[in-house]
Amino acid sequence: MIEAKKLADRFPGDFVFGVATASFQIEGASKADGRKPSIWDAFSNMPGRVFGRHNGDVACDHYNRLEGDLDLIENLGVEAYRFSIAWPRIIPEGTGPINEKGLDFYDRLVDGLKARGIKAFATLYHWDLPLALMGDGGWTARTTAYAYQRYAKTVIARLGDRLDAVATFNEPWCSVWLSHLYGVHAPGERNMDAALAALHFTNLAHGLGVEAIRSERSSLPTGIVINAHSVYPGSKSAKDRAAAERAFDFHNGVFFGPIFKGEYPESFLSALGDRMPLIEDGDMATISQPLDWWGLNYYTPMRVSDDPSEGAEYPATVNAKPVSDVKTDIGWEVYAPALGTLVETLNARYKLPDCYITENGACYNMGVENGIVDDQPRLDYIADHLSVTADLIAKGYPMRGYFAWSLMDNFEWAEGYRMRFGIVHVDYETQVRTIKKSGHWYKELVEEFPKGNHKSA
């Protein structure tokens, strides 16, 4: 096991240690104070979509337990908290009237963080699209990008003076491909044309959101959070290497290219460009406005081989054999070196700003025994990935912070409540929080790292 003190000594004094959550996953109170349904409320209640038809009606009851949860974050000693804001609380229909009670909740959240000396990192969109917008097509409609722009402007006008950073989107890969092509997440589409429309209009919404944020508060550090994939070919064969390159463009390039280069990857456009929605004049300039930072969410590598099957659609890849036999309880391969390779590869291909690891963690489902949750594998996972992050800093990469996913066990999307990522255990029947072994270790790490101690990298 990596000692907390030795690891803490490897980070510069301005490095930020934090924890992260998302609104739909923890808040509950799905019908309280003017909130209206999101696409995830509808999706969760459809048979066969979410494990056990679990839903977000109660979740971790964070909406009603806000002060206690803020105390919990303070008790962990972390410097920053990354949270998301629920669009259906702010503008319940997606367009139309603003719900002041929704804004009041986030006022209390941000003020509570400030009172405790904790930095506020807000995410404007973490997948809970107001359900009413599906009447216009949801993310497959260009109008949704403009509805998002108004929502972003509304939030920043109210909260921007107290935020330390803001992200436009969390993991657009999930809300585009996983939600519109693979059908695993809401709204559950399995259609390439729908996915391509969602891709461009999500990218456009990001750019419009950046404009909205900066029009309200130009000094607020603005970025986006991307779950970039560390893509490895299944073998050294030319076909597998070519498949890995196509997969990189499809899973990473369609976001990094428009945002950081102002263009979609050439291989992607040659394969699917004729099926893309109309890219209007000025779209790419809007999407590619310079950012102050970007966030990387990383959990597991992607290993791909060429798929020779007839009719296979771009990028035509299949899963290759993992290198590591170690898997988490959700079945994801554990391979920390991929994090370092990914950061190096992305920086070689794109001109990137400062980077925060905005999510990193592991699913292990240990329960409470005698008041203790012994989740040693999660502790090891976090320590190993932090060690890789320290290596990147030593190589000169601008890694500015790390947010453990997640603060607490929560609604894990299509997996419902059966999968646990928290460094704090939640008993969903009693809502009792129990800090796990990994949480105590993370607290020790942060305590060994005095804020602003200005160690050299």
Automatic annotation (TrEMBL):
The keyword Hydrolase applies. Keywords: Carbohydrate metabolism, Cellulose degradation, Glycosidase, Hydrolase, Polysaccharide degradation. It is an enzyme of class 3 (hydrolase). It catalyses: Hydrolysis of terminal, non-reducing beta-D-glucosyl residues with release of beta-D-glucose. InterPro entries: GH, GH_1_N_CS, Glyco_hydro_1, Glyco_hydro_1_AS, Glyco_hydro_1_beta-glucosidase. One of its GO terms (molecular function) is beta-glucosidase activity. This is Beta-glucosidase. It comes from Sinorhizobium psoraleae.
